Amino acid sequence: MFECPKCKSKNTVELNYAKRVAGGICMASSFVASLRTAFTGAQVGMRVGFIAGPVGVPTGAVIGAIAGGLAGYKLGAKFGEVIDQNILDNCQCLACGYKFSCTENKN
Asked: Any transmembrane segments, and where (predicted)?
């Protein structure tokens, strides 16, 4: 819980803008990269004959892309969290609307 340095209210929230934006960007780029890699691997596998039929190819590719996207989101969110905590005014008082750094006044 953070206290507003302006009005001393404890009715505050963390905004986490950078965490959300960086997480979303990294998730999208990781999803696309994973999907592309998965489809390339699936095509090679089909040629060699090690894939379990035509249904297994797109299913495996999508599952791999989702896993890659989630990993990308976690990495991006962690990066965004560092930006939120150290650079941006990440907290906002719901009583007076004042924005401030969460590291200023943690109670």
From this structure: 21-39, 51-73
